[in-house]
């Protein structure tokens, strides 16, 4: 878990992905519609990607990507992010994390 904390520290929005994950592009587009610029970490292109994926699975990510952190807090995957958006709870999270400044 320390590995994930070090990768998300002091970053408003971080998304763990694999270069072939189409759902990451969907979530990224949603975030950008709010004006946020998420940091995308493609674990399949990293030497320690396997360790990161194991840590994400231990958090409950199934499938392991996309895994979204907002304000260093683990949010979940595509379903959780879209659910927050439908409930009008995503923008307040982005504001609180300072990923966006107006809504």
TrEMBL record:
Its main location: cytoplasm. SUPFAM superfamilies: Thioredoxin-like. It is found in: Cytoplasm. Pfam families: Glutaredoxin. Residues 13-75 form the Glutaredoxin domain. InterPro entries: GlrX-like_pln_2, Glutaredoxin, Glutaredoxin_subgr, Thioredoxin-like_sf. Keywords: Cytoplasm, Redox-active center. GO terms for cellular component: cytoplasm. The keyword Nucleotide-binding does not apply. Coiled coil: none annotated. Transmembrane segments: none annotated. Belongs to the glutaredoxin family. CC-type subfamily. This is Glutaredoxin domain-containing protein.
């Amino acid at each position: 878990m320390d590995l994930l904390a070090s990768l998300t520290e002091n970053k408003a929005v971080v998304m763990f992905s694999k270069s072939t994950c189409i759902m990451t592009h969907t979530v990224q587009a949603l975030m950008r519609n709010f004006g946020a610029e998420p940091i995308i970490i493609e674990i399949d292109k990293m030497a320690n990607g396997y360790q990161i994926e194991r840590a994400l699975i231990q958090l409950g990510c199934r499938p392991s990507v996309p895994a979204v952190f907002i304000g260093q807090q683990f949010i979940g995957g595509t379903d959780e992010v879209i659910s927050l958006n439908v409930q009008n709870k995503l923008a307040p999270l982005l504001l609180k994390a300072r990923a966006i400044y107006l809504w």
